[in-house]
Amino acid sequence: TGQRQPRPNRRVIVDASRYFSQAKHLAVHGPWSFLREWGGAIGAWTDLPAIPFAYGVAFRYLGESRTVIQAITTLLFALTVVSTYRIGRTLVNGETGLLAGLLLLGFPYLLTQVPLMLVDVPTMALITLSLDAFLCAALLGGPLRGLLAVALIVLTVFAKFSTWLMLPVLPLAAFVIVRRGDKAAIRRSIIVLGAAVVAGGTLLAAQYQVIATQLDLLREYQLPGLGRWRESALSTFFFQIHPFVTLLTAFGVVTAVRKKEIGFLVPAFFAVFVIMLRVERIRYMLPLFPLLALMAAHGLRALSGD
After folding, report:
1. H/E/C letters for each residue in the chain?
2. pTM reported for the whole predicted model
3. What is the pLDDT of residues 165-186, one digit of tens each?
C-alpha cells in the first residue's frame, strides 16, 4: 500500500496489562460495577483493588492515555518525597527530612519505575503518606487528621499484599512516641491504629472468599517462584540504588546505635524487613525506599559533624 506500518509496542509488562484491563472495566462500567465484580468477572489474580480502582477512575474521568497514568504516578512520587521530608522532620529535624527527600530522588531504579503502570510507586506513596499522617494525627490530634490517617492505612492494606508485612512500621512509630512520654499522643496512636484495624478488618472480612483464594495462590504458586528468582545485594544496593546512599546508610546505622537515637528505629524498619524476611528482589523493597533514604540522611548528617 505504500503506507508506513505502525511499529509494534514491545514494552508490554504482564502485570501492567492486568492493571490496565482492571482499570478499563471501571472506565467502561463504572465504579460500582468494579467493586461488585472484583474477584468475579474481574480476575483478581493476586492483585488488590485500591490502585487499579484509582487508575480506572482516572481513565473514566480524565481519558485513557499513558500521559494520565504517568501524571498520576509522578504526582504520587512527588508526594512521597514531601512526606519523606515531613517524617524526617518529625522524627529528628528538618535538615534530616530535607536530606532524605533529596536522597530519594537519587535512586536510579526508582526513577525507572515512576512512568510505569504498576502498583509499586503508588504503594510506596501510600506507605509513606500513611506513616506521615499517622505521626501527624498522633502528635497534633484532631478528628480530620485521625480520619485521614485511618483512610490512608486502609487504602494501603488494599494496595498490595506485601504491605501487610510493612505496616508494622506504624506500631513501631507509636513505640517511639511512647518512649518520648507524650501521653496524649499515646492515646491518639491507640485510637488511630484501633480504628484502622476495625475498618480494614471489616472490609477484608466482606471479601473473605476472594482474599482466601488469593492467599492460597500466593502460597502455592508465587512463593515457590520467588524462591527461584533472586537479585544479588551487590546489584540492588550498589547499582540500582546509588552506592553513596548505601554507604551513607551503613554509616547512619553505626552512628545511630552509638548515640542511641530512638527515632532511628522507624527508618531502621527497612533493614529489619529486608533481613528478617530475606527479601531478595528490589521490587519488594521499593515501597520502603523512603525509610532507606531516611537512614542515609542520618549518615550524611553524621558525616557533616552534626
Report:
1. CCCCCCCCCCCCCHHHHHHHHHHHHHHHHCHHHHHHHECCCECCCCCCCHHHHHHHHHHHHHCCCHHHHHHHHHHHHHHHHHHHHHHHHHHCCHHHHHHHHHHHCCCHHHHHHCCCCCCHHHHHHHHHHHHHHHHHHHHHCCHHHHHHHHHHHHHHHCCCHHHHHCCCHHHHHHHHHHHHCCHHHHHHHHHHHHHHHHHHHHHHHHCHHHHHHHHHHHHHHHHHHHHHCCCCHHHHHHHHCCHHHHHHHHHHHHHHHHHCCHHHHCCCHHHHHHHHCCCCCHHHHHHHHHHHHHHHHHHHHHHCCC
2. 0.94
3. 999 999 999 999 988 888 899 9
